[in-house]
């Protein structure tokens, strides 16, 4: 049987590809997802060595913040453009920006240029995962998406394991530039595979790009993200207030502007749809809970429990492993029951994991932290897969890119909110107990420095960190409860094989 060609008409669904072509497109999507997922893990491992080579430690956090900021702002714009102009064209444009910026990052001669290039890299990365995930929604039916999204989640688990090891090897035995340049061969192969096996045939139609809406989106979302970053960096309150005020005003103007635009960059009508609104809000809450693991569990294991980086990495990696297997299990469960049942399992798992973390003490066994991390990973696997598949099934081709991007955008916002709020809670808790903390915490996290503090001071600082993180995980538990409530808000009978009449937006 000859391979069929995917049609991408904004007025209808793309017909299915032949089995061979579909598998090859899935491989291309998984490679693109791997490239984007590994970018975070490999750079995080290599960044201390990069700072040592370039200097500018005071700008350390901006190397990550600049990437996440521009990525978050770009995601909804790329998603909408993909609905208007086709997936492949927009994917190529965004990935090209990402790869060019990766080359420039490897050539950076100081921290300021590196931060600028990282911002450009994030602006390109905003196209990769959302559009790749949207393509899966285009070429697979809902019952198949439930299974395939588990494979995509598995890519994140592999990246979480390979990225740190590869990053450490490259900076120790080759050069830190390869941490960025390793994207080039992966991106090139992805380009070729999409070019050969994923074809869009579009009916000619003139579109009007919503330039003003795009600018308002960048200013509004960007300002709010900057406010969160500055809040996390404990900047002066007037600075935070200015960024927050500008962001709120710009988003209000955006909302008014989008009502009168024929092809808005931010289709607000999508949020009137119950499944999409619930899915997007779940991305926010799940992103917040996940940050309690990614950003703060290693600190608890090393700072409060006195364990080493290896144990901390093992505890953190448990969430990635369980996320992978939970995604596969979620696909099977939602087909047999419903999206709500699978998402409810995820919400309950998030609550159990967060409560277990809140019950940690410096004397707790490492196994307790690992099991808690496993439960958080299970919750993320079930929630992420359930909400993503249900959202994609609720829209037609012409809105699927925007709907998919909405969930991913809100998840990044959730990560930023979690990092800022949890960081503030921790800093307040530690400074309230040890006003002179400052460099003492840094010394505690170094084996030699910990012994130099003396047993009494080390215990005092460990207890202060544990108390601060206890409050962090109490807040995470409350957010997990909200996530469970969102899961219960999904329509009871909706599943990949059973749609609710009139539930789909075109």
Secondary-structure element string:
HHHHHHHHHHHHHHHHHHH
What's the alpha carbon Rg, rounded to whole Å?
22 Å
| Annotation field: number of helices | 19
CATH architecture of the largest domain: Up-down Bundle
Sheet with the most strands, sense and barrel status: none
Strand content: under 5%
What is the CATH homologous superfamily assignment of the largest domain? Answer: MFS general substrate transporter like domains
The number of distinct β-strands equals 0
From the 3D structure, determine the CATH topology of the largest domain. Growth Hormone, Chain: A
Outline: globular
Helix content: over 70%
Q: Please, what is the average pLDDT?
A: 79
Strands, helices and their partners?
Elements: H1 19-54, H2 62-85, H3 87-106, H4 111-125, H5 128-139, H6 142-173, H7 178-181, H8 183-197, H9 211-232, H10 237-258, H11 274-294, H12 297-304, H13 309-336, H14 339-358, H15 366-393, H16 397-433, H17 439-444, H18 447-453, H19 455-488
């Amino acid at each position: 049987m000859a391979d069929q060609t995917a049609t991408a008409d904004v007025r209808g669904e793309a017909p299915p590809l032949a089995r061979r072509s579909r598998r090859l497109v899935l491989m291309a999507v998984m490679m693109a997802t791997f490239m984007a997922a590994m970018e975070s893990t490999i750079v995080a491992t290599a960044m201390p060595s990069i700072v040592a080579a370039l200097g500018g430690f005071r700008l350390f956090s901006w190397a990550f913040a600049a990437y996440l900021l521009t990525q978050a702002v770009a995601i909804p714009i790329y998603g909408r453009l993909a609905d208007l102009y086709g997936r492949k064209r927009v994917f190529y444009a965004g990935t090209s920006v990402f790869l060019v910026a990766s080359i420039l990052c490897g050539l950076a001669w100081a921290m300021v240029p590196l931060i600028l290039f990282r911002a450009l890299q994030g602006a390109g990365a905003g196209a990769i995962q959302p559009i790749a995930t949207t393509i899966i929604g285009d070429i697979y039916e809902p019952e198949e998406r439930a299974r395939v999204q588990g494979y995509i989640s598995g890519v994140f688990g592999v990246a979480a394991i390979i990225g740190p090891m590869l990053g450490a090897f490259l900076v120790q035995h080759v050069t830190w530039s390869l941490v960025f340049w390793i994207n080039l061969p992966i991106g090139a192969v992805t380009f070729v595979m999409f070019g050969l096996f994923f074809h869009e045939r579009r009916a000619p139609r003139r579109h009007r790009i919503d330039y003003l809406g795009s600018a308002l989106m960048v200013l509004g979302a960007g300002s709010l993200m900057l406010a969160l970053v500055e809040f996390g960096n404990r900047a002066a309150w007037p600075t935070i207030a200015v960024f927050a005020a500008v962001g709120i005003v710009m988003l209000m103007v955006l909302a008014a502007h989008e009502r009168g635009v024929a092809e808005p960059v931010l289709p607000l009508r999508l949020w009137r749809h119950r499944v999409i609104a619930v899915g997007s809000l779940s991305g926010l809450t799940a992103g917040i809970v996940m940050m309690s693991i990614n950003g703060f569990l290693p600190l608890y294991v090393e700072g409060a429990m006195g364990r080493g980086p290896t144990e901390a990495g093992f505890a953190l990696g448990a969430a990635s492993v369980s996320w992978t297997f939970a995604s596969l299990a979620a696909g099977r469960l939602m087909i047999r029951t419903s999206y709500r049942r699978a998402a409810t399992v995820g919400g309950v798992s998030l609550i159990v994991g967060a409560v277990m973390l809140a019950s940690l003490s410096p004397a707790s066994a490492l196994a307790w932290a690992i099991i808690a991390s496993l439960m958080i990973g299970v919750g993320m696997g079930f929630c992420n897969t359930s909400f993503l598949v249900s959202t994609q099934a609720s829209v037609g081709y012409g809105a699927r890119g925007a709907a998919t991007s909405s969930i991913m955008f809100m998840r990044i916002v959730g990560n930023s909110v979690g990092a800022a709020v949890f960081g503030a809670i921790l800093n307040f808790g530690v400074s309230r107990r040890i006003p002179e903390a400052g460099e003492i915490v840094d010394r505690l996290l170094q084996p030699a420095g910990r012994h130099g503090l003396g047993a009494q001071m080390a215990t005092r600082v460990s207890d202060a960190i544990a108390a601060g993180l206890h409050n962090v995980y109490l807040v995470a538990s409350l957010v997990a409860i909200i996530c469970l409530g969102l899961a219960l808000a999904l329509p009871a009978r909706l599943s990949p094989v059973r749609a609710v009449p009139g539930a789909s937006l075109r």
